[in-house]
UniProtKB/TrEMBL annotation, chain A:
Domain of life: Bacteria
Lineage: Bacteria, Bacillati, Actinomycetota, Actinomycetes, Kitasatosporales
Protein name: Uncharacterized protein
Region of interest (Disordered), ranges: 675-694
InterPro entries referenced in this protein's UniProt entry, alphabetically: P-loop_NTPase
UniProtKB/TrEMBL annotation, chain B:
Cross-referenced CDD domains: PBP1_ABC_transporter_LIVBP-like (cd06268)
Source organism: Streptomyces griseofuscus
Name of this protein: ABC transporter substrate-binding protein
InterPro entries cross-referenced by the UniProt entry: Peripla_BP_I
Highest taxon of the lineage: Bacteria
Gene3D superfamilies: 3.40.50.2300
Length: 694, 524
């Protein structure tokens, strides 16, 4: 099987080999060995990126590619099962890490082509010892339930069938008897477990396993004592628990190492086991990562391939990690660890999709529909290559084409993830997965802001009083940690997310009250004349272009042409959602008035202000509307409007011969950039930071 | 799944070392098994029994049967079983092997009768040698060697026997051979060339003998014969008729002969001509006939014989003897023609060689002819009645023959028998018995002092010594060999064809005209 992921060849390619086959030692989807790039110790790979970049999809594809060929475990650290202890289980005998180890081992135990189940006697003993710490007043049934699941880790027989869990059942009965009987509870359970391990399996390997805890610090060469100490440390919490948890991680890796040691293992097993941690930024991800990295740095090597996926770059947790772009590791990682534990991690940033990948995805998902030729390019321009955005847009298009074809309509159309599941608007579905759910409301409002101050103004006007400036800062930091780009001049740096949030803001109320309120607040906030472009920007967002046209018309003769063009671009980048009338309300129909204005269709009926240069005023008005439309991420560039833009800029260059070169240059560059879906910039000005300050 | 079977094998077997090596082992075992199986199958396909197989391109089972095998002939079954029992009782190392080489797979009933009887006789001789010889060594193991009916079918058998001379089988002699045919002649040449002693039982042709006129060296060194040559038979017949002629004074004879003739008829004609020169017989007429090339076919000779019959009636009235030098088909046509002759009042006797024995029980023979003044006399190799009444003092004895009779009695029941239905008329049993007796004699005489097993070469050197007190007292008469291995003055029974279809013993005749002396020494 080949993965259906697009744009991730650097990971999954078979020939030449991508990162995954070089680390795991198996060709993806095949039971075929591949030479290892790091035969001694593989790097702990951490995929980084913001939400929606396809990290989970990559991990799913890895699991799919290697399942049945080599032991694979995939856990989502943000899953509820790791959030807290199950009902009835005391917190001091449970931790997310211990639970994660149990789940990982359960998945790794599954038989693969050519080799049978892997047993985890060390981890099993350790987990029983930990669980036994919480059986103080538990009833036998709960103990049996808990211990049986752990004991199945050491079961060699099949999971299903007549013999499933026979050994585990027998031992569980003994452990339950020991735990509920008289005498010290923990040691009784441990004793019964260790005895069963030693009795039930007489092989050399199990002998070794039952003696493994002898080396626990202060155990004095007594495995039972070691396990009692482990249980005690776990219950003590904090640093002691961390120590115990690290020992449990080591137990898992030692059991895995045992399965890969010896003649028969070499004869039966290909490649390396693979452990996949999704959402590794949440507990127990960082703990497991730290434990593995620390053991590796200390020389307790293992041959397990870890691939974690985390939001954000994790610079605080993994300061010395080797960082690469995905394309850089396509053929070799160039990774060499140093003394620091975190240097054993290899952070790989997942890039957005290319325009070609977008085209392929839209083609694949809309295979049964006739897709308008502009749609893939438009989707890529809007999403910036965000895989989740591209996929959901394409799926929405597959559901709504050909009735609905503009991006704005596709985003507000209802999207059903499956036939039998309730639908929601596409932009809502995207926001659910692209921004932290807890802050969706706040972000919806603050998306209109440009900086901290404007955000605070919006917050005080539209958000509850409990959300103060400190919370605004905290939210800003959170966005940066999540991996969203920090862009000066925008509170929400990612243009796609910002567009979605603004759309949500616009649609929040029937009469767009919130939307209007937000922009009116900012118009007020930017009252000072020197911040006029911001004011004009928000006026334009509310559909009022008059002030902006007047200001641009008046400035044209005297202002620095470069600044004038920059101001024009900034004001024109105001958001635009479906048409408004003069009062800012929707008028019926789906037409976009900007194009009409830009093409001069409305000029005759337009009431010119008195005493102005009519030609220049109309030209600036047409130019502003043309540019407004062409910079709108939700609308595809219209060649006619592009042509008009070129024409108007040319005409302006005639009006100001001194600045003619710049204007003429813009008349060439801007339509070309708009048609190509590139951001409209320049003419060449390296210091241009995008802010339209005059 | 892309790639299908190849991919599956690669990924589920080849890539996993354990499975790869196990499957290689399995594949190797399968290939080995396949090769072994195929070879066994191919081999079995050509195998009939231990030592016996079908050569490529033939369906005939040839070779030397080292186990109990009747060559697919149920009539041999009992005697083959008896031989098997006898062989099984021999202690390893104490025996030598004698092969009885005959065309056991023949389809001709006449031949099969002869073969069955010779086989019975050979077995009786083996039994006697192993049980009644006062512990003489070595013991004798008898095996059946099929020379087949094809032109070259004897070849594998002969090479097999050559190998057996050097193996634990210790083959020391080959007896039997059968009729005087070209393949048999080639087989004898090959055997003697390999240094294997051969004892011919029923070969009579002069060509298949050593020491014949005009030949300097013996062509078959190590060949001994039990039966007299055609020439000796003719001489014995002549001596018989001479005695008769003298007595009856009816001394006119007529010669009817095959022209151009074959080895048998030519040597017979030659002998008859010699006989008439300077004998009481006055040649009245020599009358040739020309049979078809295959002398077992009818051809047009019946007409010729009707004309000859007229000539017979035109001969002088004292002509009573007709000498016939021809094969049995022509003899039958001639006798039938004589049955219709015009001169029924005249009596005639037809004298001929042992070919006439084929006319016993011949359905197309006009037996009525024999009731009207017509007698057919011929020589036989042996006859059960030859030694019972008034035997001569030398040349054989009733006692020697009665030894065989006692053996026959023994072989009616276990442990020696049963050996199947026995018939002695044709003499084949007696001659088979004598041939093996001669072989045993040669082998035991060749045992060096203090040893129990003779060398192969020494056995063949014994033949010239078989005379005097070392003669073999056969059931068919004394067997004294000359220096070329041919019997000297061997008793030749003269036999008469009866109207009932069988043959009746007339009297013994002798090639030398009289029985040999007491010492039975051939002239140097």
């Amino acid at each position: 099987m080949r993965t259906r992921l697009h744009g991730r060849g650097a990971l999954f390619d078979a020939d030449p080999a991508g990162l995954a086959p070089r680390l795991v030692g198996l060709v993806p989807g095949r039971h075929r060995a591949h030479p290892l790039e790091h035969p001694d110790e593989p790097p702990f790979v951490v995929l980084t990126g913001a939400r929606g970049l396809g990290k989970s999809a990559v991990l799913d594809a890895l699991q799919e590619a290697y399942r049945g060929h080599t032991p694979v475990a995939l856990i989502d650290c943000s899953a509820t099962q790791f959030a807290g202890p199950p009902a009835g289980r005391p917190a001091d005998s449970w931790s997310p890490s211990a639970q994660a180890l149990l789940v990982i081992a359960e998945q790794l135990a599954e038989p693969v082509t050519g080799a049978g189940r892997i047993t985890f006697p060390r981890l099993m003993s350790g987990l029983v010892a930990v669980a036994a710490g919480g059986w103080g007043d538990a009833e036998a049934e709960r103990i049996r339930r808990e211990v049986e699941r752990i004991l199945l880790l050491n079961e060699r027989g099949p999971r299903i069938g007549a013999f499933a869990g026979r050994w585990a059942g027998k031992v569980a009965a003994k452990v339950v008897a020991a735990a509920t009987g008289a005498g010290p509870l923990v040691s009784g359970a441990i004793e019964a477990t260790l005895e069963s391990v030693a009795e039930g399996f007489t092989g050399h390997k199990h002998q070794k396993a039952s003696e493994w805890y002898r080396s626990y610090p202060n155990a004095g060469g007594n495995a039972e004592r070691g396990l009692i100490l482990l249980s005690q440390h776990f219950r003590d919490g904090d640093g002691s628990r961390e120590h115990a948890e690290r020992y449990l991680v080591r137990a898992l890796l030692a059991d895995l190492g045992e399965a890969y040691t010896g003649f028969m293992a070499k004869m039966q097993r290909l490649g390396r086991p693979l452990v996949l941690l999704d959402n590794a930024q949440t507990t127990p991800g960082p703990e497991l990562t730290a434990a593995v990295l620390r053991d590796r740095a200390e020389g307790t090597g293992d041959r397990v391939v870890f691939v974690a996926a985390r939001r954000g770059e994790g610079r605080a947790e993994l300061p010395n990690a080797v960082r690469r772009q995905l394309a850089e590791v396509a053929r070799r990682t160039g990774w060499t660890p140093d003394a620091a534990p975190s240097s054993r991690a290899l952070l790989v940033a997942l890039p957005p999709l290319s325009a070609d990948d977008t085209l392929h995805i839209v083609g694949a998902l809309c295979a049964d529909t006739a897709v308008p030729s502009h749609l893939p390019a438009a989707a890529h321009r809007l999403t910036g290559g965000n895989p989740l955005g591209v996929v959901l847009l394409a799926e929405s298009a597959a559901q709504h084409l050909p009735e609905v074809s503009s991006l704005g309509e596709l985003l507000s159309a209802e999207f059903r993830p499956a036939e039998d599941r309730p639908g929601s608007p596409v932009h809502q579905a995207l926001l659910d997965r692209l921004v932290p759910a807890a802050y969706l409301e706040e972000l919806t409002v603050l998306a209109a802001a440009h900086d901290h101050e404007s955000a605070c103004a919006l917050a005080s006007a539209l958000l509850p009083d409990t959300f103060g400036p400190a919370d605004v800062r905290a939210l800003q930091t959170l966005l940066a940690e999540e991996g969203l780009p920090v862009v000066p001049g925008q509170f929400v740096g990612d243009p796609f997310v910002r567009t979605l949030l603004l759309l949500r803001l616009h649609l929040r109320d029937e009469d767009h009250a919130s939307w209007r309120r937000a922009h009116e607040t900012l118009i007020e906030h930017y009252a000072e004349p020197e911040r006029a472009p911001y004011r004009l920007y928000h006026e334009l967002a509310l559909g009022d272009a008059e002030s902006a046209v007047a200001r641009l018309r008046d400035d044209f003769a005297d202002a620095d042409t470069r600044v004038w063009l920059r101001t024009l671009r900034f004001i024109a980048s105001a958001p635009y959602f479906h048409a408004h009338d003069a009062e800012g309300r929707d008028f019926g129909g789906r037409g976009d008035r900007r194009a009409a204005v830009a093409l001069g269709v409305t000029d005759t009926g337009y009431p010119l202000p008195e005493g102005v240069d009519a030609v220049l005023h109309l030209r600036v008005r047409r130019l502003l509307h043309a540019l407004w439309e062409l910079t709108d991420p939700l609308v595809l560039p219209d060649p006619k409007v592009c042509d008009r833009l070129r024409f108007e800029l040319e005409q302006l260059s005639n009006l100001r011969p001194a600045a003619g070169a710049l204007l003429w240059r813009a008349s060439r560059d801007w339509p070309a950039a708009a048609l190509a879906g590139r951001p409209i910039e320049g003419p060449a000005d390296p210091e241009d930071d995008g802010r339209g300050e005059a | 799944m892309a790639g299908g079977m190849g991919t599956w094998v690669r990924e589920h077997v080849w890539e996993i070392p354990l499975r790869r090596y196990l499957s290689l082992l399995l594949a190797a075992a399968l290939v080995a098994g396949g090769v072994f199986g195929a070879r066994t199958l191919m081999h079995d396909d050509r195998r009939c029994a231990p030592g016996v197989s079908r050569p490529a391109g033939s369906d005939e089972c040839v070779g030397v049967a080292t186990g109990v095998y009747d060559f697919g002939q149920p009539r041999f079954h009992q005697v083959v079983e008896a031989i098997g029992r006898e062989n099984k009782g021999l202690k390893s190392g104490s025996y030598v092997t004698v092969a009885l080489m005959l065309p056991f797979t023949s389809t001709s009933t006449t031949n099969l009768n002869d073969i069955e009887h010779q086989l019975q006789g050979a077995y009786l001789a083996q039994y006697s040698a192993n049980h009644d010889a006062n512990g003489q060594s070595p013991q004798i193991r008898l095996v059946l060697a099929n020379s087949g009916t094809g032109k070259d079918s004897w070849r594998p058998t002969v090479s097999q026997m050559d190998g057996m001379t050097r193996s634990a089988d210790r083959l020391r002699a080959v007896a039997g051979i059968g009729q005087s045919t070209d393949p048999n002649q080639a087989a004898v040449a090959a055997l003697t060339k390999l240094g294997i002693p051969v004892i011919g039982s029923s070969i009579t042709a002069d060509e298949l003998a050593n020491g014949q006129r005009g030949k300097k060296a013996d062509p078959y060194p190590g060949l001994a014969r039990v039966a007299p040559t055609n020439t000796d038979e003719a001489r014995a017949l002549a001596s018989y008729t001479k005695a008769k002629a003298n007595r009856a004074n009816e001394n006119k004879a007529m010669l009817v002969y095959d022209k151009p003739g074959d080895p048998y008829t030519n040597s017979l004609k030659q002998s008859f001509s010699t006989l008439m020169n300077g004998s009481p017989y006055q040649p009245v007429l020599e009358q040739p006939f020309t049979p078809p090339a295959d002398r077992s076919q009818e051809g047009t000779t019946a007409n010729t014989f009707r004309q000859i019959t007229n000539i017979v009636c035109d001969t002088p009235r004292d002509t009573h003897t007709i000498l016939f030098a021809g094969r049995h088909t022509q003899l039958r046509q001639f006798v039938n023609a004589l049955g219709d002759r015009g001169c029924m009042d005249r009596s005639f006797q037809v004298l001929t060689g042992d070919e006439a024995s084929y006319l016993t029980y011949e359905k197309e023979l006009n037996r009525d002819a024999l009731r009207h003044n017509l007698t057919v006399l011929f020589t036989s190799l042996a006859h059960p009645d030859a030694w019972l009444k008034n035997p001569p003092k030398t040349g054989g004895s009733t006692a020697d023959y009665q030894t065989l009779q006692r053996l026959l009695k023994t072989a009616e029941h276990k442990p020696a028998g049963p050996i199947g239905p026995v018939a002695l008329d044709d003499g084949q049993l007696i001659i088979g018995y004598d041939a093996l007796q001669l072989a045993v004699h040669g082998i035991r005489e060749a045992v060096p002092e203090g040893r129990s097993i003779p060398t192969l070469a020494d056995v063949g050197l014994q033949w010239p010594q078989v005379k005097g007190s070392l003669k073999v007292a056969g059931a068919s008469g004394w067997i004294c060999l000359d220096e070329h291995g041919n019997p000297y003055d061997k008793a030749v029974p003269i036999v008469r064809l009866t109207p009932e279809g069988d043959s009746q013993f007339v009297q013994l005749a002798w090639p030398e005209g009289k029985p040999p002396g007491k010492d039975c020494l051939p002239p140097a």
